[in-house]
């Protein structure tokens, strides 16, 4: 399948963003000829996506490192602004390591010999409120290990400072009480200093960290001969005359050819935080220079690397054997790990039903919150894959009980969906509903119409997304595509872009409510 967005222009150059979807707070590491990237996953499961590339331009999603969020019970319901914040990905002592801050619980780490896993269970390295954006460093010059992290004022009352620790090399123990290594309050004009990434280069300790907020901020660099400081700093990337607002938090990587590159995100509202790739050089005083003399590039020469096929993270899914692909995440932890698994090997807690053919069969989960998708944990989601696109899926609702429903949604702080609902008369109806950000319950967006018996209960559903994340829904109930309802303007959640979603629910009651089957999810 041709990706809906390609960064590789096919002539030795690339365009930004290299990942035109919500891969928030990216970090990257080079291991041999391979590059690996992870990103924030907040409250979705599985978490900690793992992407692979050979040239920093063409990326594929190869899995997830975190099966379920802990404490598991706390993430049994959607927690879109909690969970995994701003992870750091490193390779040291023959292992891959991921550290992240959960703002409500503290700093965790997991590790594995191979990026494919198995990954260790999460280890709570530092407990506390407001501990975020953690990054480790194994210093090969001294044999020491270190950790730096930022603070979330919403939980701790503290922000705009970075705290450093000495750490055991096994990543399980901090060896001191920590010190503030960079205090943003002491730097004129700096605020919301966060997202630090820690490196060793040229005899200096380096902290690359953004400030100024995700929409309008800038990227800073700090260096010191001693880990605990004092650090000197400067701005190394800012919007300038470009249209790339607030170039923010990311990671530095060096290729085997000796080139330096920097990946960072740009906040784009309902589309989430898309990922840009900047060339990186060093000036005569030893400071990094990012982009085009400190401003983001739109088009640039690709990194020196062997030729690579044009690639982007998958969107389409034929649901072979009834299993869903790696691009999908639930909006919360599935309730158990003893039921059928996705094609990624992750448990779905019985929210899907095994069957012999292709197509995703979702159980119509009974819920008192069936009228508000924002509250449901059993919505299977993926990121909006580009600024403009069309997503289609076919649906059959097998459930026979009144009130059972299933559909295709665009989901954020506001949501809209189109799909099928079983009426009290037993007949299937095509329905289109929405809820605004301030609304507690959904409302009809278009008059429901009975689905003809000749369709066998199957319909095709479509959402066309245009610039500005404006969504127009369509359905085909056997007589061709028809638009449904007014245009819906997608909105993000807090920290999270809008999502495409598939769901099946039913009103509260006893016993199984039946299933809904989705086939041929396709994005153009």
UniProtKB/TrEMBL annotation:
Pfam family of the protein (one): GH43_C2
Keyword S-adenosyl-L-methionine carried by entry: no
Family annotation (Gene3D superfamilies): 2.60.120.200, Glycosyl hydrolase domain, family 43
Domain Beta-xylosidase C-terminal Concanavalin A-like residue range list: 317-523
GO molecular function: hydrolase activity, hydrolyzing O-glycosyl compounds
Region annotation (Disordered) ranges: 303-352
InterPro entries linked: ConA-like_dom_sf (IPR013320), GH43_C2 (IPR041542), Glyco_hydro_43 (IPR006710), Glyco_hydro_beta-prop_sf (IPR023296), Glycosyl_Hydrlase_43 (IPR051795)
Family: Belongs to the glycosyl hydrolase 43 family.
Protein name listed in UniProt: Beta-xylosidase
Species in which this protein is naturally found: Streptomyces lavendofoliae
């Amino acid at each position: 399948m041709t990706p809906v967005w390609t960064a590789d222009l096919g002539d030795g150059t690339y365009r930004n963003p290299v990942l035109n979807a919500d891969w928030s707070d990216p970090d990257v590491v080079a291991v041999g000829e391979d590059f690996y990237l992870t990103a924030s996953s907040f409250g979705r499961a599985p978490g900690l996506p793992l992407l692979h590339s050979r040239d920093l331009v063409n990326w594929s999603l190869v899995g997830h490192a975190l099966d379920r969020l802990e404490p598991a019970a706390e993430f049994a319901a959607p927690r879109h602004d909690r969970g995994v914040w701003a992870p750091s990905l490193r390779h040291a002592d023959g292992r891959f390591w991921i550290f992240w801050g959960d703002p409500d619980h503290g700093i965790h780490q997991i590790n594995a010999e191979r990026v494919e896993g198995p990954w260790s269970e999460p280890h709570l390295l530092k407990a506390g409120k407001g501990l975020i954006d953690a990054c480790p460093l194994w210093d090969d010059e001294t044999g020491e290990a270190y950790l730096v992290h930022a603070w979330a004022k919403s939980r701790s009352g503290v922000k705009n400072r970075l705290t450093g620790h000495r750490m055991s090399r096994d990543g399980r123990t901090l060896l001191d009480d920590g010190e503030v290594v960079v205090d943003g309050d002491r730097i004129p004009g700096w605020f919301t200093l966060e997202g630090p990434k820690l490196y060793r280069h040229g005899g200096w300790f380096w902290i690359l960290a953004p400030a100024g907020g995700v929409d309008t901020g800038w990227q800073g660099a700090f260096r010191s001969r001693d880990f605990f400081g004092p650090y000197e700093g400067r701005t190394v990337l800012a919007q300038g005359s470009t249209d790339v607002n607030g170039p923010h938090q990311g990671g530095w990587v060096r290729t085997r050819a000796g080139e330096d590159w920097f990946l960072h995100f740009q906040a784009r509202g309902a589309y989430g935080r898309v990922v840009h790739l900047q060339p990186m050089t060093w000036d005569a005083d030893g400071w990094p220079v990012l982009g085009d003399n400190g401003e983001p590039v739109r088009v640039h020469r690709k990194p020196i690397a062997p030729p690579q096929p044009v690639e982007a993270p998958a969107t389409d899914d034929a649901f072979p054997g009834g299993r869903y692909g790696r691009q999908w995440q639930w909006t919360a932890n599935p309730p158990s790990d003893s039921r059928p698994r996705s094609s990624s090997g992750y448990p779905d807690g019985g929210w899907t039903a095994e069957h012999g053919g292709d197509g995703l069969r979702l159980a119509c989960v009974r819920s008192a919150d069936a009228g508000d998708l924002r509250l449901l944990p059993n919505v299977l989601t993926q990121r909006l894959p580009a600024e403009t696109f069309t997503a289609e899926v076919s649906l059959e609702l097998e459930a026979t009980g009144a009130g059972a429903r299933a559909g295709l949604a665009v989901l954020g702080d506001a949501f809209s969906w189109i799909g099928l609902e079983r009426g009290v008369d037993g007949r299937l109806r095509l329905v289109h509903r929405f809820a605004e950000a301030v609304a507690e319950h959904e409302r009809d967006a278009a008059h429901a119409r009975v689905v003809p018996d000749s369709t066998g209960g199957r319909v095709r559903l479509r959402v066309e997304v245009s610039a500005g994340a404006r969504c127009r829904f369509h359905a085909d109930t056997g007589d061709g595509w028809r638009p449904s309802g007014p245009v819906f303007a997608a909105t993000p959640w807090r920290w999270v872009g809008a999502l495409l979603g598939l769901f099946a629910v039913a009103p509260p009651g006893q016993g199984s409510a039946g299933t809904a089957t989705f086939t041929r999810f396709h994005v153009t």
